[in-house]
Amino acid sequence: MAALRRLSLSSIPPLRRIVSRSFSSASNDDQTLLTIETSVPFTGHNIDPPSRSVETTPKELLTFFHDMSLMRRMEIAADSLYKAKLIRGFCHLYDGQEAVSIGMEAAITKRDAIITAYRDHCIFLGRGGTLLEAFAELMGRRAGCSKGKGGSMHFYRKETNFYGGHGIVGAQVPLGCGIAFGQKYCKDETVTFTMYGDGAANQGQLFEALNMSALWDLPVILVCENNHYGMGTAEWRAAKSPAYYKRGDYVPGLKVDGMDVLAVKQACKFAKEHVLKNGPMILEMDTYRYHGHSMSDPGSTYRTRDEISGVRQERDPIERVRKLILSHELSTASELKDIEKEVRKEVDDAIAQAKETPMPDPSELFTNVYVKGLGVEAFGADRKELKSVLP
Fold first, then answer.
1. C-alpha span between 103 and 98 (Å, rounded)
2. What class, spelled out in words, does domain 42-50+63-356 have in CATH?
3. Up-side HSE of residue 356: CA atoms within 13 Å toward CB?
4. What is the value of pTM for the model shown?
5. % of the chain exceeding 70 in pLDDT
6. What are the φ/ψ torsions at residue 117 (nearest 5 degrees)?
């Protein structure tokens, strides 16, 4: 008989709240069935919300801890690489929001599609991308996921249906709805998660695309990652109604604690089942970014340091999973520290390898842009040095 244990994330650490422990297999403890209550209830709009009780296993929780720690370390390393001028251009970091990517991936398959904005490094990693591909792309190297030509804002992984980061605010939303149109047309029984931030939530193209999706009952889930600041502007200054899950009006919505990986998993599973039968839905992920909007934004001029540290102490998604693991005695604090050390080494090794990979050939500047045979010439910045001539 499957084991059941309950724990509310809102009252961590609660070792005394463990109800029972039994195993479906005496030799397979990592498949113990755990039932855990989400930190806060889901809030629904034109729909009955899912249950707060989420099923998981020790293996899944430990995987969550490893994967979110890896994402966190990658973004912290990207911060250092940017400051060392090894990453150029724009760079938008995801640390603090890891539970959205990890929880979403736990509820879907790689046949389902994801498209997002420019805060995309961790979404790419969640879709099966490698650290080498990520760091090489950030540093403009040939081994990058977009061959070093996209940079931070344009990660992409076709083989697992990740249709990229997009630099134009809100532009990915109609594209995501178009992907969902293709899924319905081909009867794939798959869905598209179209992600955007609270800063993009007032874009007209979002409402136009949602209207068409609702008319055609497309299997698309609009995911608003509400980290409460569009660039340096607080949500209440930009939106008359910051209840983004209600913005669809005629489309059902659900507000989710985006700092609770199990709540995200439950919501995304629920949403996928719903949209395959009924058409589009909005998920508002209540999350938070620890860095500024981009690396050019210190992130502390429009919010207080106390606010940031308060979220870290009370809602950090990695610490929540750490406390769950420890309170259920699935691992020791020392073992979790060892995982974090391994993660740091993984990231350091990937950076070292990325630094050794070559830059793209200058001729790659025009690949997939101009038709071959037009004799396009590429010059240096001063137009004195001819770099290459396309065949």
1. 8
2. alpha beta
3. 7
4. 0.88
5. 91
6. -85, -145
Written as one letter, the residue type at 344 is R
Task: State the CB neighbour count (10 A cutoff) for residue 207.
Answer: 15
Q: Specify whether the CB–CB gap between 123 and 193 falls below 8 A.
A: no
Contact criterion met (CB below 8 Å) for 359 and 140: yes
CA distance 11 to 7: 8
Q: Is residue 1's pLDDT more than 60?
A: no
> What are the residue ranges of CATH 3.40.50.970 in the chain?
42-50+63-356
Spatial distance between the Cα atoms of 290 and 311, rounded to a whole number of angstroms: 9
Cα separation, 146 vs 151, in Å, equals: 8
- Please write the tens of the pLDDT for every residue from 342-373: 999 999 999 999 999 999 988 787 787 766 65
* Per-residue model confidence (pLDDT) at position 8: 45
Residue 177 has pLDDT above 50, yes or no: yes
Instruction: Note the pLDDT tens digit of each residue in 88-103.
Output: 999 999 999 999 999 9
Bridge partners, residue 386, by sequence = 379
Contact predicate 350/357, CB 8 Å: no
For 330, which DSSP code?
Answer: S
Tell me which H or E stretch contains 272.
helix 261-278
Phi, psi of 379 (to 5 degrees): -115, 165
How many C-alpha atoms does 174 have within 13 Å on its Cβ side?
13
Neighbouring CB atoms inside 10 A of 95's CB total: 22
Cα distance between residue 356 and residue 359, in whole Å: 9
Considering only CA atoms, give the Rg of the chain. 22
Query: Residue 134 has which token pair?
Result: 């990520």
The pLDDT value given to residue 159 = 97
Task: Tell the residue number behind the tokens 């995501």, with chain if given.
Answer: 176
Q: How confident is the model at residue 390 (pLDDT cuts 50, 70, 90)?
A: low
- φ/ψ (deg, to 5) at 282: -110, 135
The predicted structure's pLDDT at residue 11: 41
